[in-house]
Amino acid sequence: MNDLPINFEEILETLALQGGFNTNAVILGTTLLGIAAGVIGSFALLRKRSLTADALSHATLPGIAGAFLIATSMGYSGRSMPLLMLGAAITGILGVACIHLILHHSRLKEDAAIGIVLSVFFGIGIVLLSLVQTSSSGSGAGLNHYIYGQTAAMTRSDAAIMGTIGIVASIIALVMLKEFMVVCFNETFARSTGLPVWLIDSIMLGLVVLITVSGLQAVGLILIVAMIIIPPAAARFWTDRLWKLVLISALIGGLSGYAGASISALFPRKPAGAVIVLVAGSIFAISMLFAPTRGVLADTIRRLRLKLLIARDHVLESLYEIESDIEGARHPNASIMLIKLIAMRGWITTSNNTLALTEAGRIQGQRIHRNHKLWEQYLVSYADIAPTHVDWSVDQVEHVLTDELIAELEEALRVRGITIENGDPA
Question: Where is the domain boundary, 264, 291, 318?
């Protein structure tokens, strides 16, 4: 099949899993891998083990090449998928063990330990891979595809193994959801309740190993870590709840695997691993920009609204202080646009280029002025801050005081015999 043209019917057939048995198997396998990577990656992210997963993935290369060399030297097929996965798992775990040994027996920080293990193991793997490529058997051709991934080289049995591992890993993670959650959020509490933290950590790491080795042929050892990190990182923009994080991460991972494998099937010259990661990266970018609570756009709007609220309140408070002849009243400094916005709310009038509060505006100004004095008196009385040093802090807080917090402040001051009437302490 050529890259172009691709007609609409072919796209629908591929997306509807009608593109052939082998193609369907690969798409389903990568989808299940993406779901599992999203689930397991959620705990790796919360446990701050994302970089460890990166080192683990690079440490699998010597295991792949070593397993091939050992198998061929003994007269067996070196291209056996289970055999290569076993070798990858062994050296991956060995790499993580080396990281822990370096951390416990040296003064190096975790990032340095990960960098050392990652580079050394990957270098060993490249050397062994060169031996494979120059071997007389010639059966090692294409083994370097495990570095970048190549779904075209996958068989139905390879896809079935990958999908099965993904299902098993997801089930184990969901069964141990409570234990993982406790260890991720409060390791000290987990130890105090008698939970075997070391065992739970080992199971968590074992699941990362499973996902890593199962996705080597589809995504490659360099990019498989992206499948573990990107979906939960993207999901984090959408929720603060763990179970929702796991669910959304699984959906993003599954969608990335499904879309990436489908695109690769339609355009065979496009490497599926890279396309899968690009789809996941695109979803991450969309999440970072447009998530309703944590996204950049929402955060920017929230900050602008807060700045507008503060500026508006300062104008109302200044006008109230001026009209009430309060000592230290400040002249309002506002743009024409802000003045128009406040006037639209019915809080001020602007006749003859003079600003004046309406009755509703005076009520708002009095409330803001009172909140200012309330918080000021609280800081002076309870935080032992000099009255001349509290003004800036008060200016930032007075605008966001809730009715509940105001009631608490009033009660705390009342205990000390201080009351605030119309903004003036008594």
Answer: 291
Give the CA angle between residues 188, 193, 199 to the nearest 5°. Answer: 75
CA distances to 43, 115, 125, 218, 305 from 118, in Å: 21, 5, 11, 21, 46
Same domain assignment for residues 382 and 241? no
Question: What Å distances lie between residue 244 and 8, 239, 402, CA to CA?
Answer: 35, 7, 29
Residue 66 has phi, psi (to 5 degrees) of -65, -40
Burial of residue 363 (CB within 10 Å: 0-12, 13-18, 19+) is: middle
What CATH number corresponds to the domain at position 398? 1.10.10.10
Query: Residues 185-218: pLDDT tens digits?
Result: 888 888 888 888 888 888 888 888 888 888 877 7
Question: In the listed set 256, 291, 326, which residue is the last one of a domain according to the structure?
Answer: 291
The answer to whether 276 touches 253, Cβ cutoff 8 Å, is: no
**Are the C-beta atoms of residues 208 and 49 closer than 8 Å to each other?**
yes
Residue with tokens 């000290």: 188
Domain that holds residue 124: 8-291
Beta strand 424-425 pairing with 356-357: unpaired
Are 305 and 257 within one domain? no
- 330 and 287 within one domain: no
Please report which confidence band the pLDDT of residue 78 belongs to, taking 50, 70 and 90 as the band edges: low
Q: Residues 417, 419, 425, CA angle at the centre, nearest 5°?
A: 110
Q: Same domain, yes or no, for 383 and 315? A: yes
Q: Within 13 Å of residue 378, how many CA atoms lie on the same side as its CB?
A: 20
CB atoms within 10 A of CB 391: 11
Asked if residues 30 and 261 have their Cβ atoms less than 8 Å apart, the reply is yes
CA-based nearest residue to 31, from 14, 47, 43, 46: 14
3 located within any domain = no
Instruction: Give the residues across from 349 on adjacent strands.
Output: 356
Instruction: Compute the mean pLDDT over every residue in the chain, rounded to the nearest whole number.
Output: 82
CB 199 within 8 A of CB 191: no
Judge whether residue 176 has pLDDT over 50: yes
CA-wise closest residue to 114 among 62, 59, 66: 59
The closest of 218, 27, 61 to 132, measured between CA atoms, is 61
Q: Quick check: 133 and 208 in contact, CB under 8 A?
A: no
- CA atoms of 362 and 381, how far apart (whole Å): 28
Question: Which residue in the block uniquely carries the two structure tokens 């009437």?
Answer: 421
